[in-house]
Structure formats: structure tokens, C-alpha cells
Amino acid sequence: MVRLQKEEKELVRDTYSVNSRSFLSEDLVSDFKDVIKKYNMSSNQIRSLFKDDYLHLLDKSKDFIPLCVFYNDELSSLETIVKYLKEEMDMKFCDIARLLNRNEKTIWTTYHNAKNKNSERFILSDSKYFLPTSIFKNRAFGVLGCVVKYLKDEQHLTYHEIGVLLKRDDRTIWTTYKRVLSK
To answer: Which residues contact 142 (CB under 8 A, 6 or more apart)?
Structure first.
């Protein structure tokens, strides 16, 4: 566990002093991730630096998933989401299951399969797009279908742009979107 010196703690507190009732912005989320990387801290360690008033801001970041985590070849969409929520957001399996409207055993199995495929943590770069976790509650569509539908309908991206962001072929994105529309 890395111990921060007193000056570093003050710097972190000063940098991230925000109005306690403001909504969590994308910039703030990326700033927190920069601090996590820079000081090799977990989310729980950062939380301990803040007053209780600021905890709800950190918890709101669990409601969004940065699109940059999907830029991998090894993991399925569900594996990517579960691995991100478990490792980066320090969530419990039961909380992830509730958030994604899935069975806890499914989440546990998915996470362990993801760890076997890719044991390294995600490299979180700046992400222009964030997916709300609420889109995964509808079990009528697959995870990739939910992602593609959100990016196409809500963000108005082209099939090619979505394919590049998700590191998938344009034809796969087109097929996935057409199947979602037919349901």
C-alpha cells in the first residue's frame, strides 16, 4: 500500500474539492482515474481522503462505463464490463449482478473467465463516450446489442465509428444493430 505524504494528500484534496451537490462530470471521472494511476491507489483509498459529502460523487461513476475499456481483442462485451466494474470500481459480485440485471453466479463465472483471458488491468485512456449501466438492464438484447443500440440511437454514431470504438468489424455492428431492431 502506497502511503501519501501530507503535502500530496492536501494536493489531492485541493484538486478535487468540488461542490458536493454537483453532478459528476466526465472530466472529474478522468481526473480520479489519473490520481489512481499516479499514486497507485485504489478507489477505496481515494475515498478515505474525502469527507462523506463527496462519497456520492465517486459512487455515481459506477453508473457509467467508459467506452475505452472495450478496446481489447480478448474479452467479450460482458466480460469487459464485469472486469471493469470489479477491478476499477471495486464492486462486489452481488452489486454488479444487481446493476446489470444478471445472476450473481453468472457474474462470478464471467469475471473469472475474463481474468483467465486477460489478467492485466485495463489501461484507461481518455474516453469521449460513457455508457450508462442502465442500458444493460433490458435482457431482451445481448450486451453488445445494448452497446451498439445506445451508440447508434443516443450518440448518433455511424456503424464505422462504432466499429472503431468497439474494435469490431463494421458488418458485425450493422448485423448486431439490425437484430436489435428486429426484436
So the answer is: 77, 176
